[in-house]
Structure formats: structure tokens, C-alpha cells
């Protein structure tokens, strides 16, 4: 438990293990570029076009009027914050670096960098959807956690599936293209906690990475921190009231043969305020083969990516560090060499 960052009451200086080389923590320029905000109460046609445009241009967008109640969003944020405020004794049993565990509390993940640690604690739930009886290892505190996580996952997964259907409509894929194995794998819900940090300019909350799954829906919280790669720079995502941030995972890039991009993002920390965000990811099943859909392949557009079992893709993602690449497409081609 002593390695949970937030369990030290106040950090007056940054421990050396969290310090990154200067070239890896270059600040975003101050140029203001906003993520598109898509109002889902507009006509289906408009929403579909807006999502496709935003997706093609930035790979990231925010959605408002998405049909998920403010109460469900607030409950999720509140329960997440409450969890990280619990006394250490209530959390110690959950601490684990074992990625095969359904529920895992971990801290300062090193990823594949020079060994530096990231300024983040994370409570992760990964389970077959729907939740069924896999909640037996779930924490029993705060007392509403189980109910809130289950409800929030159900709602955000529903939103992600609706966004995928809109994408299918817009791109000429069968509407149920992602309904089966492609979108039916483990659902992961990460409650990320980035404690206030004594020196935000020399560390990172999360490294530049692309999400390896199909789609992520993020409750970003009120405190800024998320940054999205854009033209060699970073866009600082300004939280919009009641919005979710949505981005495409690498599997969506593969399926669309690169038409939709999975874009790098990172999290910067903050010296004044702790930040809590909640990310829901949908993924293919482990045994599902995933590659460019026939609709995106032609003589002029040969497949840019190999078809791989999702299980194998994940293994390679970890070995060749796909997630931290500055150029995802180059690295996905690397996958082809590895296999
Ligand atoms: C992630 C992620 C962003 C955030 O969990 O993969 O990119 O703002 N999170 O916490
Ligand atoms: Ni991410």
C-alpha cells in the first residue's frame, strides 16, 4: 500500500522515480484548438456526419445530450473519488499488478519506458459483459460502488455501441457489425486518480499512448489534464459540462483500414488539484480475428494491417510497445513483421 501515490498525505517534492527526461514532457503549445463537441440531440444524419468528420480529423470528440443522466455521471465521479479517500486498510487487499485479475488496484505503472513511474493510481474492473456473477471480488466500499460501476458501465457501453452503429451507418458497414465478437469482449472500467503533484512539468499522469481496444468513453472530471496529439503538438482537452470524451481504439483503425485513426493522448498532472477520471473501454473477444473489413479494401486500397486474433494483438502491443508509438501505422506494420 505504501506504493499508492495518493496514500502519502502530501507530497512536497517529486520522488526521483517519477521524473522523466525533458524531451518526453514537452508542454503543449498555448494555441487553442478545441475538440469538437457533438450534440447527440440533433438529427441522426447530422450526428452521424459530425462523428465521422471529427473522427477522421482528430480521432477524438466530446458528446453532449447523449442520454446518460447527470445523476449517473455524478454518482460515478463521487464514488470514484470516495474510493480513493478510503483508509489504506480498506484497499490493501485489492493492490495487485496481476493483469489477469478482474479487479485490480495499482499505482505508478511503469509501462515500457526507461522505468519511470506515472503519477496515477488506478482501480480497474475488467469483466465479461453483462456483469453476471463476476462481482464477487469487487470492493465492498464505498457501499454504492458495485451498483454505480455496474450501472455506469451499462450506460456508457450502450452509448459506445450507439456511436459504433452511427459510424457503421456513415461508412456503409452492416449496422450490427460490432454487435457480436468484435464488440463483445471484456469491458474494462478504469477509475483513474491523479493526485495533486508537486512538480507537474517533469512528470506524466499517463504516457503518450493509443488505446488498443475498439472505443473508449471517458468521464473526464472537472479538472483538466487530458491532452490529445495534433499536428506534432498537443490539444488540451477543456472539460465541457455533462460531456463524455470519446476516442477510437486501435481495433477501429484496423477494421476501417486506417480511415478512422486511433490517436495518441497523454495525461498531465496538476499541482493544485487531484483529478479523477473514469474510462470505459469496449474490446473484441480474445479469440476474435480482427482485420480490415472487406468494405475498406480494394485494389487501390490494399489492407494496411494484418488480421490477427485480438489476444495476439494484445501480446504484440506489449512486446513492441505499440501504445507508446508516435506513429501508430508504422508500428502496426511492425506487427506484421513480428508475426
Ligand atoms: C486511459 C486514458 C485519460 C484520462 O485511461 O487510457 O487515456 O484523462 N485516460 O484519464
Ligand atoms: Ni487512453
Automatic annotation (TrEMBL):
Pfam families: 2OG-FeII_Oxy (PF03171), DIOX_N (PF14226). Residues 184-284 form the Fe2OG dioxygenase domain. Keywords: Iron, Metal-binding, Oxidoreductase. GO terms for molecular function: metal ion binding; oxidoreductase activity. SUPFAM superfamilies: Clavaminate synthase-like. Transmembrane segments: none annotated. Belongs to the iron/ascorbate-dependent oxidoreductase family. This is Fe2OG dioxygenase domain-containing protein. It comes from Panicum virgatum.
Amino acid at each position: 500500500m505504501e506504493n499508492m501515490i495518493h496514500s502519502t498525505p502530501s507530497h512536497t517534492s517529486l520522488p526521483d522515480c517519477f521524473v522523466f527526461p525533458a524531451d518526453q514532457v514537452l508542454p503543449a503549445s498555448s494555441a487553442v484548438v478545441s475538440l469538437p463537441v457533438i450534440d447527440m440531440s440533433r438529427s441522426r444524419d447530422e450526428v452521424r456526419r459530425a462523428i465521422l468528420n471529427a473522427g477522421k480529423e482528430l480521432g477524438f470528440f466530446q458528446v453532449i445530450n447523449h442520454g446518460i443522466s447527470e445523476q449517473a455521471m455524478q454518482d460515478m465521479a463521487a464514488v470514484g473519488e470516495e474510493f480513493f479517500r478510503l483508509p489504506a486498510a480498506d484497499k490493501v487487499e485489492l493492490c495487485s499488478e496481476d493483469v489477469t485479475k478482474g479487479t485490480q488496484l495499482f499505482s505508478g505503472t511503469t509501462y515500457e519506458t526507461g522505468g519511470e513511474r506515472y503519477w496515477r493510481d488506478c482501480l480497474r474492473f475488467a469483466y465479461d459483459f453483462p456483469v453476471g456473477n463476476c462481482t464477487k471480488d469487487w470492493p465492498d466500499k464505498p457501499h454504492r460502488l458495485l451498483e454505480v460501476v455496474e450501472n455506469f458501465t451499462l450506460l456508457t457501453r450502450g452509448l459506445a455501441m450507439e456511436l459504433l452503429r452511427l459510424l457503421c451507418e456513415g461508412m456503409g458497414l452492416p449496422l450490427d457489425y460490432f454487435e457480436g465478437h468484435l464488440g463483445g469482449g471484456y469491458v474494462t472500467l478504469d477509475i483513474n486518480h491523479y493526485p495533486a503533484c508537486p512538480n507537474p512539468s517533469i512528470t506524466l499522469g499517463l504516457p503518450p499512448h493509443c488505446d488498443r481496444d475498439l472505443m473508449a468513453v471517458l468521464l473526464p472530471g472537472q479538472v483538466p489534464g487530458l491532452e490529445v496529439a495534433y499536428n506534432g503538438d498537443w490539444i488540451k482537452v477543456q472539460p465541457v459540462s455533462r460531456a463524455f470524451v470519446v476516442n477510437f481504439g486501435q481495433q477501429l483503425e484496423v477494421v476501417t483500414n486506417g480511415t478512422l485513426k486511433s490517436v495518441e493522448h497523454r495525461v498531465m498532472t496538476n499541482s493544485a488539484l487531484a483529478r479523477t477520471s473514469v474510462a470505459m473501454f469496449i474490446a473484441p473477444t480474445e479469440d476474435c480475428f480482427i482485420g480490415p473489413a472487406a468494405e475498406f479494401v480494394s485494389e487501390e486500397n490494399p489492407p494496411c494491417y494484418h488480421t490477427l486474433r485480438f489476444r495476439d494483438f494484445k501480446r504484440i502491443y506489449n512486446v513492441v510497445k505499440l501504445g507508446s508509438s508516435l506513429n501508430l501505422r508504422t508500428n502496426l506494420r511492425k506487427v506484421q513483421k513480428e508475426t
